[in-house]
Amino acid sequence: MKKAILVIVLTGIMLPAWGQRFHGGPMLGLATTQIDGDNLGGYNKPGIRGGGWVNTPVSENLILQLELEFIQKGSKISQNKVNSQNYYHARLNYLQAPVLVQTSLMSRLTGEAGIAGAYLVASLEDRDGGGFLEADPPFDQFELSGLLGLNYELSEHFNANVRFNYSLLPVRPHPAGQTRWPDLGQYNNAMLFSLYYRID
Fold first, then answer.
1. Helix (H, G, I), strand (E, B) or coil at 80
2. CA–CA separation, 161 vs 19, rounded Å?
3. Domain limits of the chain?
4. Minimal CA–CA distance to 189: which of 35, 83, 51, 23?
5. Can you tell me the distance from the alpha carbon of 58 to that of 114, in angstroms, rounded to the nearest whole number?
6. Mind giving me the DSSP string for 2-65?
7. Residue of 188, 197, 186 lying closest to 117 (CA atoms)
8. Which helix (H) or strand (E) holds 90?
């Protein structure tokens, strides 16, 4: 129900934009992710991200951009550590809504920063290679994350984007319950590589 409300609200924000000074379109990309705090290192869990975006200038050199996307996050042990550490693979599927401010850095290149609220659609873990089960302990249903990125204008209609996406709050406690500052739990850590298409 909460997921449906989020989609309706964001759609209501985006649709009236087309009659004004707004631009938008679809985007599709790859997420390479890890979970900080699970004792595994490296962006070894690939996933997809895809959705839509809309933006509008708010000043001479600032653009406000809203997005709605499906994104896969999680963690996976690297192949070269399988024999030295316990197997682990987590799949986290989110419906995420980033809000970004973008500014021009040089010709064809813009920087961006923002925040994103996300709703956890599904969370599965495989702890021994025997198959996926519901995550235990469970991940939080909602995530708040920070975003930093760069956009490069490939053509009039296509932009390439690289973005860092990191949880501002833990997505779940440590399994052993440690809460020592600043390590308060586990955090999603993602590098995103995407292609944006602009519809005129």
1. helix
2. 26
3. 2-197
4. 35
5. 15
6. HHHHHHHHHHHHHGGGGGTT-EEEEEEEEEEEEEETSS--SS-EEEEEEEEEEEEEEETTEEEE
7. 188
8. strand 89-106
Of residues 116, 198, 89, 113, the one with CA closest to residue 163: 113
Fold topology of 2-197: Porin (2.40.160)
First to last CA, the chain: 33
Amino acid 164 reads: F
104, 22, 98: which is closest to 67 by C-alpha? 98
Task: Look up tokens 């599965």; give the residue.
Answer: 124
| Lookup result for tokens 């024999």 | 83
Closest CA to 195 of 60, 51, 79, 93: 51
The tokens describing 85, both together, are 């550490």
pLDDT tens track for 72-112: 999 998 866 766 577 889 999 999 999 999 999 999 999 99
pTM of the model: 0.84
